[in-house]
Structures are given as C-alpha cells and as structure tokens.
Amino acid sequence: MNGASRERPLLEIKDVAKRYESHQALGGVSLDMRKGEIISVLGPSGCGKSTLLQLIAGLALPDGGEILLEGAVISSSRGMQPPEKRGVNMVFQDYALWPHLSVFDNIAYGLKNRRMDRADIRKHVGELLEMLQLVGLEKRLPPQLSGGQQQRVAIARALATQPRLLLLDEPLSNLDMRLRIEMRTEMAYLFRHLGTSVFHVTHDPEEAFAMADRLLIMRSGAVDQIGTPADCYALPASRWAASLLGAINRIEGTIVRTARGVGLRSGSIVIEGVGAEAFAEGSEAELLFRPDDIVFHGSGEAEITVAAETAAAYEGGRRQGDDRTTFGLTVRHSTFEGKRWRIVANTDAGQKLYLLVERQLPPGTPITVSLPRSAAYIYDKSQERG
Ligand code: ADP
Predict the structure, then answer these.
(1) Packing angle between helix 103-113 and helix 147-160, nearest 10 degrees?
(2) What region holds the ABC transporter domain (predicted)?
C-alpha cells in the first residue's frame, strides 16, 4: 500500500455541494478513493447518498466543488463529462435489465456497442456467466429469473466493459435476508478478486461492513466519519455514527465527581472511566453502547450474589471493577431472536436498555448486568441528534 497510497487517487471528490431548491442535499463532501478500493457510503434514507452517486455517474450537476476521475475533472458546476464517456458503470437497486433481451444479450450489450468481435464477446460473456454462476441461464429473459439471478446479471453486465469505476446503488435491498447475506459475501470476494474499484451506497451497516475497505458515514448531506469498518465500529466519531453502527442503548446523566475520579450518574448508576473527565462537572452527557456489550450476570436475589473475586468491590447495590461497571435493571419484556432473547429492561431512573440473554425473563424480574468501560462511548448531550 505504501507505493500505491502515493499514487494519484482514482476518484477525487472535492468539496462537492448540491442543492434542490431550498434543500441542501450535499453540503461540501470530500473523499479520495484509491484504485481497487471498495468504498461503502452508509447512512439512512435522505442523507444524500444517491445524490452523491448521481454526481459521480454524471446524472446530475453539482452546484459547487468538483469530481476528478484519474486526474481529469468529470464534474463541476461549470459542466460535466457525459455519463457514457466516463467509463463508470452503475448497478441499480431495481436491476434495470433490458426485459426483452436474453441474459446473454444483456451482458453482451456494452460489448456489442463497442463492436467487439463476436467470438471475443462469446468468450468474455462466458467467463462472466461462469463467475456469477449464471451458466445455463443465458437464453432466459429477465422476467424468467429470480431477484438474485437478475441482480447477478446486472453485475455481470456492469463488469463486462471493465469500467474504471463501478457504482452500486443499494444493490441488495430488493432481496430477502438469506440472499442478501449470500450476495454481499460473494460480491465482496468477486470485486476483490477482480481488483474492481467500487463505490457502493447502502443504508445497511452489515452490508457496508461486509463489502467495504473504507466506510463513508453520511449525515444530512455531510461526511460524519471516514474509516475502515473496524475503526468506525470500535471508535465511532459521533453519537450519530455510534447509533448508526448499533450502539442503540443510551444512558443520559450528569457528570459528577466520585471518590475515584469523574463519572456519569443516572439514578443510582455511576459509570466511571469512560472519558467523563473531558466534561465539566454538572454538565449533561450521554453514554451509548451496544446491546451485545452488556453482560448478563443473573436474575433474582440468589443469582445476583456476585462471584467471589469481585464481591469485595461490591458496594451499595453496584460494583465497580477496574474494567466494568455493574448495575441493576428491571425487565420490561423479552422477545425471542432464535439463539437468544432480546430483553428490554429499565434502569432505576426509567431509562430503557436492550440486552441479549440466553433465556427468557419474566417482566418485573430484577437482573444484574455489567458494562465494560471500553464498550461505552460518551457524548455531550447538546450534540445535535440526526
Ligand atoms: P439518500 O440516497 O441518502 O436516501 P438522496 O440523495 O436521495 O438521499 O436525497 C437527499 C435529499 O435530497 C433528500 O432530502 C431528498 O428528499 C432530496 N432530493 C433528492 N432528489 C431530489 C430532487 N430531484 N428534487 C428535490 N429534492 C430531492
């Protein structure tokens, strides 16, 4: 990567802005993408993902900034290169196949336009049929295919002309869950194997994790965080990124001084060592964490009796280990999720938390849980919610 990282980026998005009447859909987005890289743009509906994709594809004109592909400006407010001249292909959410053309002819379409020799077309399409497990289906029309097969044809068609950049717009959102998991795994393998440069847009964090070398997390038309999936998961840059990446549990509280330092207090729960030192005493903050980071220790009086090595540190209904905080919750309800039950439980201050437990717990059951400090992210409460 050392040499490659000094090379000119394949795609340079420089402070790109786009407004629709009074609505600022993109407010200055910048990103450099390497050749062969897979970038996944992640964000909820309406955050500007498709707008960014359309600007790269040449389907819309930016109001500000510019986009360069292999060093040449392809879009700016002054004008743009026509989409068909960019060497950029797109796979759409609804596949957009030619319904009256066979699988073979759909895939061969761009090659015929380029007047490729017929024998070469047959060879090239044959390789793509093989690669995308479509052998035997070449004579069928798109309406005679399943959703997953149609999506494979759309990918084969987009790869056929060996684009400089492949754009994927929510490519799996019309497929059922099992197929989505299968397809995202296969696509991640295929694009890496071929060295395809991919700019992928999705609202699904799991799809983005499975596909991306780097994530671009968007919020209200702006970049919230850029980083590898692992880095973004471990250290979300904002409360927005944290909740998007699964940290849906929230404890709101006040920053207090404790015997051992500074912590966040909410009702009887005091959580120390989570970065509360960065906040002024008395200020309002919130702690975000994921359901699967809460450790369930037991329910009812008998089970709540803590293990001997930590019992010494138990005081006043809560236990402060060096690396975790233990506290009590009351179960509100449980839903079955296959391997585990998702428990909804309240803190004594009435805040609702989710956790995953291997058995069902009746409403009203007192439980003891702990939260590892490293799993909690603290944010200023005044930080705007998305
Ligand atoms: P996403 O792909 O993340 O769902 P979009 O890029 O489609 O978001 O849209 C970003 C914002 O711009 C949304 O608020 C949307 O309503 C608005 N928008 C998108 N396209 C248009 C358009 N053609 N005219 C007016 N507003 C639009």
Answers:
(1) 20
(2) 11-245
SS3 333: strand
Query: Among the three residues 236, 265, 287, which one is the final residue of a domain in this structure?
Result: 236
- Please check whether residues 257 and 222 belong to one and the same domain: no
- Start-end of H helices in 70-176: 103-113, 118-131, 147-160
Q: Is the pLDDT of residue 98 over 90?
A: yes
pLDDT tens profile 268-313: 999 988 888 889 999 999 999 999 999 999 987 544 444 433 443 4
CATH number at 71 reads 3.40.50.300
Going by alpha carbons, the residue nearest to atom 21 of ligand 1 is 20
Is residue 162 one of the residues assigned to a domain?
yes
Ligand 1 neighbours (beta carbon < 6 A): 20, 23, 25, 43, 45-51
Ligand 1 closest atom vs CA 45: 4
Identify whether residues 220 and 368 lie together within a single domain: no
Is residue 176 one of the residues assigned to a domain?
Answer: yes
- Are 226 and 248 in the same domain? no
Residue 385 forms part of a structural domain: no
Cα(94) to centroid(ligand 1), Å: 18
Q: What is the DSSP string of 299-324?
A: EHHHHHSPPHHHHTTEETTEEE-SSE
